[in-house]
Amino acid sequence: MFTGIVEATGEVRAVEDTADGRRLRIGSPFEELSHGQSISVSGACLTVEEFEPGEWFSVFLAEETIDRTFFDEIAEGDELNLERAMPADGRFDGHIVQGHVDATATVEEIERVGEDWRFTFSLPADIERYVVEKGSITVDGISLTVADRREDSFSVAIIPTTYDVTTLSEKSPGDAAHLEVDVVAKYVERMV
């Protein structure tokens, strides 16, 4: 489980496509990694296969991951948001994030508002029922609050710190983004 508080960004150093699937090697400042460890990579929970502490780690992308993410278009040099799994005795600063990408959206608009920004994203029809104004949503692994909800889009307010320490500063209209809706909303729907 993750909190959606991005710890660092990492540059894609290698993309390897084989008959078995796709592997990524991602630059990382994390000194404490282990084989089999879960790590959120722009919102997708992936498993560390190999690593060099403080330098890089590699992950394998299953077909399900490729189908639900923009990782089929990822290239060397791209930056990705990174968060290690939350320790049981750690602070819980964001919201419950599983690292299960529900949909891929598109950045529709970016507007500077004083010192912060307002990002508007498309809202895929199959997840729109889970997105509510002032509710939680994860965008590229970042825990955010929905500021405005329209029929086929939503907006979030981005403070300078979030803009500076995540890949949002690299986004432009038309770019893809991973979305994970609040898991609590899914459970409530299932129970009623």
UniProtKB/TrEMBL annotation:
It holds the Pfam family Lum_binding. Pathway: Cofactor biosynthesis; riboflavin biosynthesis; riboflavin from 2-hydroxy-3-oxobutyl phosphate and 5-amino-6-(D-ribitylamino)uracil: step 2/2. InterPro entries: ATP_synth_asu-like_sf, Lumazine-bd, Lumazine-bd_dom, Riboflavin_synthase-like_b-brl. Residues 1-95, 96-192 form the Lumazine-binding domain. Lumazine-binding repeats lie at residues 1-95, 96-192. GO terms for molecular function: riboflavin synthase activity. Catalyzes the dismutation of two molecules of 6,7-dimethyl-8-ribityllumazine, resulting in the formation of riboflavin and 5-amino-6-(D-ribitylamino)uracil. This is Riboflavin synthase. The lineage of its organism: Archaea, Methanobacteriati, Methanobacteriota, Stenosarchaea group, Halobacteria.
